């Protein structure tokens, strides 16, 4: 960290000390298994009819198709627009479309569009096109580990690194971190736990770069820039990006996963139903609300949110909350 960063951290520490507020200097450590497997077992024993919700969503393909075509068409319309106009449209329109596609890829990582996994993988590569950067295949590799090993030290790459947690310690650095959180989210696993790319990742890379090259060749750099802007402004200081924080950042030490029950679920494949999703990852997003309706006693007692924008504000302004505000657990060694 440079001298400027040291000064900011020092000033923040002094201010926190003066106010009697101390930010956590380590993660929350759990010595029990993640809560979702046991809750799933309990719920299914009481409400076996929930299994009827399992299976792919037949509307996934047409919904993804409409968003992909709309976003690529918008990019071609902006090929000679001014940069300020492009940025405004990217933030207030394109960001919602690209974030929708990012969460469609999340849905597809669980094979929730088709029963045949390879079809989901192809659709993920297609959904990736307006995002501008190849990520759908790699995302699936790491995301499934997040479900199987939630919070496990060194495996779950959804958790910030030690470096992030030690640097991001005050309102200013947290604001910068939120603004750039998509970069951290994308590059963290590549630095901490790199996986050798396989055939499907090279295919994802080739298809994506072919689309990017075609966009530049036929419509120019501005059309391609609009897609990139839509991706990264939508992943930063943006209402939809609040789910990155709301899902697992600990505001209540007794709880490590949080749901959001607000209107943006309609645009985000209902990823806000995050406790329900981790309990039942084989249920498509549009049916997750039925889990809460069938088994309300398991969810109504849990803390939840109604605004992702409020979550971002709380994360930045609460001096006790930061990247360390995550639950971690050690790998159990076999005897």
Automatic annotation (TrEMBL):
Sphingolipid-delta-4-desaturase required for the biosynthesis of delta-4-unsaturated sphingolipids and derivatives. It catalyses: an N-acylsphinganine + 2 Fe(II)-[cytochrome b5] + O2 + 2 H(+) = an N-acylsphing-4-enine + 2 Fe(III)-[cytochrome b5] + 2 H2O. It comes from Linum tenue. The keyword Oxidoreductase applies. This is Sphingolipid delta(4)-desaturase DES1-like. The chain crosses the membrane at residues 86-106, 118-139, 167-187, 199-220. It comes from the Eukaryota. One of its GO terms (biological process) is ceramide biosynthetic process. It holds the Pfam family FA_desaturase. Its main location: endoplasmic reticulum. Keywords: Endoplasmic reticulum, Lipid metabolism, Membrane, Oxidoreductase, Transmembrane, Transmembrane helix. GO terms for molecular function: sphingolipid delta-4 desaturase activity. Its EC number is 1.14.19.17. Belongs to the fatty acid desaturase type 1 family. DEGS subfamily. It is a multi-pass membrane protein. It is found in: Endoplasmic reticulum membrane; Membrane. Residues 22-60 form the Sphingolipid delta4-desaturase N-terminal domain. The keyword Transmembrane helix applies. GO terms for cellular component: endoplasmic reticulum membrane.
